[in-house]
Amino acid sequence: MSSEPNTPEGEDGRTVLLDGVVGIRIRRLQSLFGSHWQNWFRVRSLAVTPVQGGVLLLIRRYPGISQIALARRLRIEPPTLVQTLTPLIAQKLVERDRAADDGRVYELRLTRAGLEAAALVESSMPQHEADLLRFLSVEERQTFLELLDKAIAGAEVAIEGQEKAE
Q: Residues 6 or more apart from 64 whose CB is under 8 A from it?
């Protein structure tokens, strides 16, 4: 039984957070993914957040990508990207150099250690995600990913609509 009065429980007896409120559930899942990620990589001697791990993978895929292009790809503000990059640069995983053709532009590349970290992130993802999605069948996981992509696309259109209205 739940310790909170009038709090619904799922079939497994776990508390359901604000039944029917999607955002709370998405945030809870994100929090659980983040906690698992931190523990997973800490024992593998890699101190990066999930966002930083994604940044490493993107820089590896697009070596020399500009900070502005990376921020656009991630759909975040450039100052937010700088906050994400600063620890990666301090750990000597990422190098940031001015572009030869435009001194206002910073290009990003992985160091040797950054390439190793990106490889570790990529090779670890299947097991990390399998641990977290263990109660989903293969078919359910595929459907879940398709629904997430569809929800993200809808959310992006909604945000773009808000931005145009402003």
A: 107, 108, 109
